[in-house]
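Running this now, will post back.
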Amino acid sequence: MIGHCDCNNFYVSCFRVFMPELVGRPVGVLSSGDGCIVARSNELKAMGVANGTPVFQLPHEVRRTTVLLSSAYPLFGECARRVVATMRAFSGPVEPYSIDEQFVDFSGLSLEAMQAHSLELRQQVQRCTGIPVSIGVAPSRTLAKVATGIAKKQPAYGGVCVLEADHPATRAHLGRMPVTDVWGVASRTGEKLARLRIHTALDLREANPSEIRRRFGIVLERTLWELRGQDVIRLDDIDQKRQNIMTSRTFGSTTGRLEDLREAVRSHAQAGAEKVRRQQSVARAVMVFLSTPRFRSDLPQDFPSLTLTLPRPTDDSRLIVAAAQRALEAIYRPGLLYAKAGVMMVDLADREGMQLDWLEGQQTEAERQQSAKVMGVMDALNREFGRGTVTLGGRRQDERWRQRHARQTPRFLTSWDELPSVRMG
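Update: finished.
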C-alpha cells in the first residue's frame, strides 16, 4: 500500500506556525508581486474567495477582515524539509512530489495497522513541525491522492482515509468524482472524455484500456489501471525533464529605462541557467520577451520577443546572459513603458548524453571543465548563502523592476536578526 501526505493549506500553515495569532482568521497568501491570492485558509475559502483572485477584486468587507501576506518561499521550503525529515524518521521511504505533497511506502502493514500508523504519523508531523496534514492510503498513487482528498474534505475521517481498490465505498467515491479531478487529467482531456460519455473517475476506471490508449496515449491508460488499484505510475514518469524553462516576473512598477530592463533580463537569464544546470541539461537557444501593461489602454502596447541561437549548447550563465542581453537590445523600443520581462531556455537537451556538433563551436575539454567549475562554485555559494549572493553584473538599490513585497513577514528561519523571540516571566 502507498500513502499520500498532503499539507493542509500549506503556505498559510507555515505562517501560522510562527504567527499563532493568525489561527482562526481568514488569511490569504499572495503571488510573487502581491498581485493574486495563491493560497487561502479555510476561513477565507468559506467567504467565497477563489484561488487566483486578484487582490483589487476582493470586496471591501473581505479585505477589511482578511490578513494578506506576501509569499515567503525560503520559509515554505524549510517547513517542507522539516515535514519530510519527520516523515522519514517515523515511516518508510518518502518520495517528495511537490513542496507540500509526499508519497510514503506502507508496504507490509495490515489495513488495521495502516490506519493506526497513519493517524500516529499525522500527529507526529503536527507535533514536530506545526503543519497539519491529511493522509490517504491505497494500492496505487492515484487512488492514494483520491483518498487524501476525501480525508481533507470529510472531517469524519479524522484526517486519514484508507481505500481498498474494489471496495464498494471506493467505487461510490469515484462515481461522485468528476474525471477532471483525477490526478493528471487536464480539463481539455476531460472535454474529449466527455464526448465518449466518460464524466466521472468511475467511468474512466470502467473504460476499455485499449481504447483509452489508442485515443489518448499510454499515460491516461496508466491512470485507468491506477484507478483499478494497480501501481503502474512512477514519479519519474511524471516529473520528466522539461524541454523549455521560463523565468519571468511582472515588475513592481512600470519602466522604460533600458538599464532597468537589462538588469531584469540578466537576473531572469541567470535564474533560468541555474534551473538548466539543476536538471543536468544544456540549452540550444534563448528567447527574451517584453510586455507593456495589458490593461492600460491609455498607453501604447508592445509585446515583442526574439529567440537567439546560442554559440553552442550550454548551461553556462555567462553565455546565456550575453545572448539574452543581445536579444533585449534588438526588441527594446525607447519611449514605451514595460511591465514585464521574461527569458526562456529553449530546446533543452541532456548534458551528459548529448553529442556536441563541431559546427556549433565545440569547446575543448579544458574549457568545458573550467566552465563547469565556475558555474558549480556560483551555484554552491548561492545555495549556501542565499540566492543572489553571486551574480553577473552589479545590482542597484533602486531596482524599479523588482517585484513588490509590501506584505512581507519577518524571515523567521533565514535571518538571525528576525528569529522569533520568547519572553520568560
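The first helix runs from residue 10 to 18. More later if anyone needs it.
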